[in-house]
Specification:
Length: about 450
């Protein structure tokens, strides 16, 4: 049984199928602190709840800290598996809260608490949906470290658990251009993100003779201005926002009376499909060549070097799941019946969904509305939370023609047999071509 359309939760309207009422499910999650990197307690709680719901469960440890783990579960025998995914962790407490952030508080149709919106309501909605009695194969995964560098999601991707998953639904916050108080938007994609390092050379000279050399810091300043101007070339396309970038670090110095001969910039870049972190590197190199050709720099005999900044997990590539996929249409039908005609949107920010999509899984976000995530007095809309529980339950119980509605994701052979020390993902464009209809490519 589903919650009635637009019907907020009350103790009298809870479906008899639900063993624990949705409010209690959310409350116990909020009252179990899970500020990263301390997700163990909530992991144990979720694991226990999944077992009560008839799931076989497993822990997937994080590569760099095996004491931290994701929790995954599986149930059912029919069809190819649908995946519900949520992250367990929250950010630390920010700002001045009116009340204890670890005690769920209800006020004016809002449920307050740390992580209520991002994304414990989504995690609770998944658990509520799992109370639906169904033979359909369902996989659930709850990740650690999303608010940091998605180490949990990458561990999940490498574990093999995602093999054969046909569709991933993530009841995560929405941050699209068209985010509205109406909980009818299905987010089909998210921007990606990568950080690039620029080594900027200068020409040293005695500091009393500044015309004899070129300060690398001056050259870096010129580059900063030109990189900022690039933002003017980026434009949204429908619901898909524009790419954007900013300088996140600049360093360089002279330790003597000498013009500095080296400086370094870091550019933080949000990517839009069909861009990839690799394709943007090539575009940036071309752009710097263009600047040299235009005579922007005063030290042309040495060239600026650009590279992707190293980090311990891969960068999150952008993705765009086609609304025409039967999996997406199935969810759209449920939203249409439960809420309203769905709006298809695209997220500004990266999240663990980018990792799932990088594995070739058609991925969408559909979660309740709220506000104040990553700040004081975070809340989630109670009625929206109720609808999320109902929509996830309806999706988990749907009995599609499995060969038609939930075809397995076409993951390249060997994709899940990744070496443990290095990430060698297939070119993301190859994956995009399988499951997406990206917007028209654009250059810088
Ligand atoms: Zn989140």
């Amino acid at each position: 049984m589903r919650a009635a359309k637009n019907n907020p939760i009350s103790s009298s309207s809870i479906s008899p199928i639900l063993a624990i009422d949705p409010i209690s499910r959310l409350r116990e999650l909020i009252e179990t602190s899970s500020i990263f990197p301390n997700e163990q307690a909530i992991g144990v709680l979720i694991e226990r709840r999944l077992r009560e719901l008839g799931f076989s469960t497993k822990r997937i440890p994080l590569q760099d800290d095996p004491s931290r783990f994701n929790v995954v579960g599986e149930r059912g025998t029919t069809g190819t598996p649908l995946l519900f995914y949520g992250h367990m962790d929250t950010v630390p407490i920010y700002g001045q809260w009116d009340k204890d952030p670890f005690k769920m508080r209800e006020e004016s149709g809002r449920l307050y608490g740390l992580g209520a919106y991002d994304m414990k309501a989504g995690v609770a909605a998944i658990l509520c949906a799992c109370e639906e009695k169904t033979e359909q194969r369902i996989k659930v995964a709850f990740g650690a470290d999303e608010e940091n560098i998605s180490a949990g999601a990458w561990a999940l991707a490498k574990s093999g658990f995602l093999k054969n998953v046909s569709f991933a639904v993530v009841p995560e916050i929405e941050d699209s251009l068209y985010a509205s108080p109406h909980p009818n938007s299905i987010m089909l994609g998210r921007r990606g993100r990568a950080v690039y390092e620029f080594d900027v050379p200068g020409q040293s000279a005695h500091g009393a003779h500044i015309r004899d050399g070129v300060s690398a810091i001056d050259e870096a300043a010129r580059l900063c201005l030109e990189l900022d101007r690039l933002n003017e070339r980026f434009h949204p396309q429908g619901a898909v926002p524009e790419a954007s970038q900013f300088i996140r670090k600049i360093e360089g110095e002279s330790t003597s009376l000498t013009l500095p001969e080296a400086a370094r910039l870091e550019l933080d870049r949000h990517l839009v499909a069909p861009e990839t972190s690799a394709s943007v590197l090539v575009s940036l190199q071309r752009y710097v060549d263009e600047l040299y050709a235009r005579g922007v720099f005063q030290c042309p005999q040495k060239r600026i070097q650009i590279r992707l900044k190293e980090r311990t997990t891969p960068y999150l590539e952008p993705y765009h799941t086609s609304e025409k996929l039967p999996q997406v249409q199935r969810l759209a039908k449920i939203v249409r019946e439960e809420v309203a005609e769905p709006a298809f949107t695209y997220g500004f920010s990266v999240a663990d969904e980018n990792v799932l999509a990088s594995c070739g899984i058609p991925t969408v976000s559909y979660g309740p509305r709220g506000a104040n995530f990553h700040s004081a007095n975070e809340w989630v809309d109670k009625a929206g939370y109720s609808r999320s529980c109902a929509s996830c339950a309806a999706l988990s119980a749907s009995r599609p023609n499995s060969s038609c509605l939930f075809p397995p994701a076409r993951v390249p052979p060997g994709f899940f047999n990744l070496p443990s020390a290095r990430y060698t993902w297939p070119h993301p464009n190859a994956l995009l071509a399988m499951h997406t209809s990206p917007p028209t490519p654009r250059g810088l």
